Amino acid sequence: MSEKQVRAPEVDITWEGKTISTDSVRMRIAVGQDPTVSVAAFSGPEASSSSQPALSADAADLMGRAQQAAATGVPKQDFNMNLRDGAGGSLDFKGIVAGPTYMMDSQGKSIRPAIGAISACGIVANLQLSNYLGPTKDPKESIVRKSTVMEERPGSSNLSQRMSELTDGMIEAWLRHRVRSNDVISDRIRSNIHLANEGGPLGEWRKILANSMETLDLEWLSTMKDNKTTNFVLNGNILRLLRSPTGSFLETIGRVAQAFSLQYVPQRNGSAGRLEPREKRMTGELLEKDIPATSVFMGGDLPRQLMPVQQVIVVGKTRPSTIEASSRVKSEDAVGVAGYPLNATTANGNIMTIPLPFYLELYSMTSAKGISTRGIPTIDSAVRAFRNIRDLTQTNLNTRDEALMSSYAKSVYNDAALGSYSSQISVPLDLGWEVGRRYSLSTGGVALFRGFLASVEHTVSRGEMGSSLDFTHVEYGSYRLPT
């Protein structure tokens, strides 16, 4: 048995200022999710007549207090854990007790009473931005339009900056222009929701946006940020995403991530994570790590596709092309096609064809002088717009559209090409793994693969300790994804 396999990990846990005695902890950290911790509410000898551990009065009381804490009052960020792997690695985690739960051992023979905790940032799930809707002093005006961020003006090339401005703008506009209704109960509820938002959830959302400032300075947004009409409509779509009522604001973050091809990467210590482009799964910096060959278990499913995506083709409406002489204009849109990689060999291969997302198609349709997205234009305004477009060279139009579409195709390709190639590895407990990073793994100096760490689960319990790793976007041996 190797030296690493006989290590003695240790864990210290406090909750509500009191120490929790336990010998079993399981922690899961995954991209797109909030980190969770399960702690066995038991530490002591097992009952001799059963595989089930004895449930003490203290354990039962602990579970009851956990349920009480989760069901009433404001969530408190008072769960603290320090986990040490016995080889110099350690992990500090701050969180919120979410209620009682159960833990099953690796052999499925013993179920243990436990309490569960989510990260301190998990309180962001309670954020209710849908609260900032409603009447203003002028019934013809919406609160959104009274926010300065909705003006037709140049916008930021940073998506995180935009969302930060829109979040603050909608709240400021609601506070400044809201009116009291005859429904006293409704007014009281909305005021209480605002106070609850400011009690913690809003602050965590702002931390996520601050952490994303460096990662969300996007090329495509830089290209279109000076188009006033596009900015107005784009901001409106972002506001609709942020304010749509959901059961959890974590679901809202997921919708934003899906709309803009992003991923949420949590912090393993429980603090606020970050949003970043999904293409980082193939383009991020590689971290090299050698793992012991004698203790590695590898697994994985067959890919859901016969071969990697070899090329991504984007098809989108790129510009108005014809004007019909009728009382209202119905324009035909030219279809643009772009792909990445341009030199892909796709004979009998796997080609992914996708449409342009709404925000890129919108830019392409409105960036020519004279085109407006506000309603259906009249004949006169449409003819004037058509003449403006006609004066532009066809080369300039094609160059602009092709560059925009090719950039989007590249970002999708980097995420989708190897999305179904995965590998699961079990290794001795190692708290140094970081989800959201790319790794180049080897064992004894022999290369295994390169992949994106999507999740890690650390387990420490009687007779069991280790780290389970899930990798996606895996490249084996000498294979490199063509670019």
What does this structure look like?
Strands 1, 2, 3, 4, 5, 6, 7, 10, 11, 15, 16, 17 and 18 form a 13-stranded mixed sheet that branches. The protein folds into 3 domains: 3-121; 127-277, no CATH class; 311-416, no CATH class. Mean pLDDT is 76; it is low at 1-5, 43-51, 319-333 and 367-398. It contains 11 helices and 18 strands. The chain is flat and about 70 Å long. With 483 residues, it is of the alpha+beta class. 29% of the residues lie in helices and 27% in strands.
Note the gap between the termini: 44 Å
Number of strands: 18
Average pLDDT over all residues: 76
Query: Poorly predicted ranges (pLDDT <50, ≥5 residues)?
Result: 1-5, 43-51, 319-333, 367-398
Radius of gyration: 27 Å
Biggest β-sheet: count, sense, barrel? 13 strands, mixed
As a percent range, the share of helical residues equals 25-40%
Helix/strand order, N-terminal first:
EEEEHEEEHHHHHHEEHEEEEEHHHEEEE
Shape: flat
What structural class do the secondary elements suggest? alpha+beta
Question: Would you kindly provide a brief summary of this structure?
Answer:
The protein is an alpha+beta fold and 483 residues long.
Q: What's the topology here?
A:
Blueprint: E1 10-15, E2 18-19, E3 25-30, E4 36-40, H1 57-71, E5 79-84, E6 90-104, E7 111-119, H2 159-177, H3 184-198, H4 201-211, H5 219-224, H6 228-243, H7 249-259, E8 262-265, E9 274-277, H8 280-283, E10 286-290, E11 297-299, E12 311-322, E13 332-340, E14 351-355, H9 358-366, H10 379-391, H11 394-416, E15 423-427, E16 438-443, E17 446-461, E18 464-476
Parallel strand pairs: 10-16, 12-14
Antiparallel strand pairs: 1-2, 1-5, 3-4, 3-17, 4-7, 5-6, 6-7, 8-9, 11-15, 12-13, 15-18, 16-17, 17-18
